[in-house]
Design goal:
By secondary structure, the protein is an all-alpha fold. The protein has one domain. It is 70% helix and 0% strand. It contains 3 helices and no strands. The chain starts with a helix and ends with a helix. 0% of the residues are buried.
Length: 61
């Protein structure tokens, strides 16, 4: 009985996941902005504007 319920839940979950992937799977993932990541990750004032520009240049190659 328990395995039948688990199987039904799994089947339903897989169907929901498949539908979501059909709807959303082809969307392009937004490319992350390294500058924004640095600004969000580190405390304000840790990098000067010049240091941030230098890091940006390194990240862009």
């Amino acid at each position: 009985m328990v395995s039948e319920r688990a199987s039904a839940i799994n089947s339903e979950s897989l169907q929901v996941l498949a539908q979501w992937l059909k709807s959303n799977g082809t969307r392009q993932v937004r490319e992350t902005d390294p500058r924004r990541t640095i600004l969000d990750r580190y405390p304000v004032g840790l990098f000067s504007e010049a240091e941030l520009e230098a890091l940006w240049d390194v990240l862009e190659g």
